[in-house]
Amino acid sequence: MDTWAVVLAAGSGTRFGGQKQFAMLGGTRLVDRVVETASTSCDAVVLVLPPDVPWDGTLVTATATGGASRAESVRSGLRLVPETARIIVIHDAAHPLASSELFSSVIRAIHSGADAAVPGLRLTETMKRVENGRVVETVTGPVLIAAQTPHAFRAEVLRAAHATGADAVDDTVLVEAIGASIVVIPGDPMNVHVTTPAELDLAARLLDAP
Q: Of the residues 72, 76, 101, 200, which has the fewest C-beta atoms closer than 10 A?
């Protein structure tokens, strides 16, 4: 089995007001949707869960217990991925509408030679940097993107990045720090990031859209 997915579902859901990974979307829990999609494109799935939460959902290859940070949760999942894996995909339950094609696209980018691949949407609104409620800078110049998940990596690159023990908002930051190549593939506007009840409502509307 060459391609493994590590699905992160260990968050506490502070902004959501509860563990959003177990919220329902179209009659299915967010985490089950993500596991099902990952399973269509990857050979095996490791699911990272909160401490003391048993898994009673879609079949996975293995489960791991999350840590105090995102990076620690990823490392917990990585420990269960065999050394024979060539590609590792990191995804999270907060992106329940990520498509099988998006998974396949980031995986293809690794097969084409990239160390890492991330979906991104170009930001079309004017970006402002704000401090204490006041605009201090209008961000111009290079194109900015909103990065989505899933992220795909050459397995040895991801392991090397996490061997530093550093923390980061996502794995591409750690991979970038060791000088690896990261490519951006077109993201999907449907792939919304669910962190609040309002965003869950948006995901439901997108799911029901004709």
A: 101
